[in-house]
Write a structure and sequence with these properties.
By secondary structure, the chain is mainly alpha-helical. The protein has a domain at 6-191. Helix content is 42%, strand content 5%. It contains nine helices and six strands. The strands form three sheets. The protein has a two-stranded antiparallel ribbon. A hairpin with a 2-residue loop joins β4 (229-230) and β5.
Length: 267
């Protein structure tokens, strides 16, 4: 009886440790990374941070390999893999702290997510979808200092905790239905304007079919609906109406479009 109890206890401990590791990798933990909240309307500035990160190398790569529609030349990125690796190595060595401003942190984590996603595709290219890669979002593969974060960890454990819902239109998951990958790096000097542009472009694009009474929205607004707030309260329609050319009636029935996970590759 005692042996059976000990085996059961050991199994429980092992299962718990595995579960904790999975939860951490999947993004429910920031793994100690600073996650400052946007307390009021975000402004663009480099004046309030101990560090100003230079993202110009990422901008050069994006302008070279991403077109204005956000489609990506992954073959081109593959030929520039060493430059991509150098940029990610530079980010890894920066190691954000609480002395960084919220603007610097947002720009850093958004660029880190996008560059790491491009690297993930390049390392597995050719492929039809990011979903063909085992553990694309859950495996620790993004280095910050001595830590290995998952893409899910950066999105859910860090960026979503910063109280800036527009990040959902800035990070790119290498798929057709994702918000487009901008062909310039995010920077603290332009972060508010860049997030506004990304949000307006996505909401008013064919990723949504917006009408006053029968809106068909991207599944992003379903998966992350609690992030979209107006005056501190969850309000998907109210959030969209701040950016949409066509306004949705309050109380309209929302349906959600199927998500196309095909690779966002230039043809």
């Amino acid at each position: 009886m005692k042996t059976t109890f000990n085996i059961a206890a050991l199994f429980f401990i092992v299962f718990s440790l595995q579960s904790c590791s999975l939860i951490s990798a999947a993004g429910f933990s920031s793994q100690g990374q600073p996650t400052k909240e946007v307390k009021s309307k975000l402004t663009s500035t480099t004046a309030n941070s101990a560090v100003n990160v230079d993202h110009s190398e990422w901008s050069i790569l994006l302008k070279k390999h991403v077109n204005n529609e956000g489609f990506v030349d992954y073959k081109g990125f593959k030929s520039d893999k060493l430059k991509l690796d150098d940029y990610l190595k530079m980010l890894s060595e920066k190691e954000p702290t609480n002395d960084w401003s919220v603007q610097e942190l947002l720009a850093y984590y958004i660029n880190l997510y996008n560059a790491a996603t491009v690297k993930l595709i390049v390392e597995n290219y050719p492929l039809k979808s990011i979903k063909d890669i085992d553990g694309a979002w859950t495996k620790g593969r993004v280095t910050i200092g001595s830590k290995e974060l998952s893409l899910g960890g950066i999105e859910n454990g860090i960026l979503r905790k910063m109280n800036e819902p527009r990040i959902h239109f800035a990070i790119n998951c290498a798929s057709i239905s994702c918000p487009k990958l901008m062909n310039e790096a995010y920077t603290a000097a332009k972060i508010n304007e860049q997030l506004d542009t990304a949000t307006k472009e996505f909401i008013n694009s064919d990723k949504n079919d917006i009408s006053p009474s029968n809106p068909k929205l991207s599944s992003i607004f379903d998966w992350y609906q609690k992030d979209f707030k107006v005056n501190g309260k969850q309000d998907v329609i109210g959030f969209i109406n701040q950016y949409s050319k066509t306004k949705i009636n309050t109380g309209a029935t929302i349906t959600y479009k199927d998500y196309n996970w095909s690779l966002n590759e230039q043809k």
